[in-house]
Amino acid sequence: MAVRKFKLLTAVNVGRGLAFLILIVLLFASGYLNYQYVILASLTAFLLALFVLAFWFRQYLWGEVPSISSLWAYGKENINIGIFVLLGNFVVVLFLTIDRLMVSSFFPIEQFAIYAFGLVAAMIAYTFVGAVSQVLFPNLSAMTTELRTRAYQLGKPAIILAWAAILTIYFPLTGLIKFYLPHYVASLPIMQILLCTVGFGSLIQILHISFYLAYRKQRQYFLWGITALALSAMLNILAIKIFGTLESVAIATLISFVIWYIINELSLSSAVGESNSELGRGLVIMGSYLGGFWLASFLADWFIAQMFIYIGFFCVVTWLLLRSEIRQLVTVANSIKSHRG
Question: Which of 90, 182, 243, 330 is the right S-S partner for 248, CB 3.0 to 4.6 Å?
Fold first, then answer.
């Protein structure tokens, strides 16, 4: 990632997954498929990836050996920075799982299964979010302050647009679940709410965290993250104690994402050159997409009709509120295309 070899990174990750899959198939065929061997298969796949990367970057690994004093100073500097990055990343993992921990603690296993199934679509989206954030940070590190600000101004509407478009998948999913998995129909309202968290979560993971690290604000990243985590735990407990429903837990999770998003926006406003009015405008845009998404579910019963109603809302909101940003994004995309050509 540091040297921006993303094609190699992708190839190694895909190869690791294939190696793990092949080992699992071999274990299954030989009758040795138990959790101990699955763990060994996972470790073997990671070791293969390690050997490939070690061979590829061998000139860095086996170059001139630095002195002990310089190595110690370099390690100390990285530890001072990395400890808060490590803790911040740990907070992100807890934040994304706190609702499931609460549901598993206070609800029976059947209810947990319903909630976990409702989370599937959101987790698939977060897989792509993690991949984008991995690519963005190394490129941000190599940019000037002016280019970083420009990247933030264009990245924010691009992520919002992508998330609003992804919401469309909810409607065909409802048809598939009702037809093929009727026992999980109760998870649909939860899925609808949790898909809404993806927009705020994407902005947090792709933009906010990358900019915190690019500007060496790892302490703020950790402190605001732990604050948001504490608030999320409190909101989830209140939802369980007061309402006692899975939907209330999902709503508390959505509110937690919104709060963390606003905290990060205020914390990074000076670094990215964003005013409070622009923060408010972003919330209005995201709220408009959410309103259209939820309203489409109430205006029709058939999932295809709901999907077309939402697409109509999406087009109207995009035209009214993000027209200028889309023009800028198209201009940037065309310039990149012509530069590569």
Answer: 243
Q: Is 201 in contact with 253 (CB distance < 8 Å)? A: no
Both tokens assigned to 172:
């065909």
**Alpha-carbon distance 255 to 189, whole Å?**
16
Average pLDDT over residues 264-287: 87
Give dist(CA 328, CA 315) in Å, integer.
17
Q: Is residue 15 exposed (0-12), middle (13-18) or buried (19+ Cβ within 10 Å)?
A: middle
| Distance of alpha carbon 203 from alpha carbon 228, whole angstroms | 15
Give the integer Cα–Cα distance in Å for 138 and 176: 39
Closest CA to 250 of 107, 120, 119: 119
Instruction: Name the token pair of 249.
Output: 């837990």
Helices (H) and strands (E) in the chain, counts: 15, 0
Query: In this structure, how many other beta carbons lie within 10 angstroms of the beta carbon of residue 135?
Result: 16
Residue 78 CB burial class (10 angstroms; 0-12, 13-18, ≥19): exposed
**pTM listed for this prediction:** 0.82
Assess contact for 254 and 125: CB atoms under 8 A: no
Is residue 268 within 8 Å of 151, Cβ to Cβ?
A: no
* Closest listed residue to residue 23, CA positions, set 11, 32, 14: 32
pLDDT digits (tens, 9 = 90+) for 219-268: 899 999 999 999 999 999 999 999 989 999 999 999 999 999 999 999 98
- Residues 214-245, buried b or exposed e (16+ Cβ, 10 A)? bbebbebbbbbbbebbebbbebbeebbeeeee
Q: How many residues does the chain have?
A: 341
User: Alpha-carbon distance 148 to 339, whole Å?
Assistant: 20
Q: Domain residues of the chain, as ranges?
A: 6-62, 80-334
Residue type, 76: K
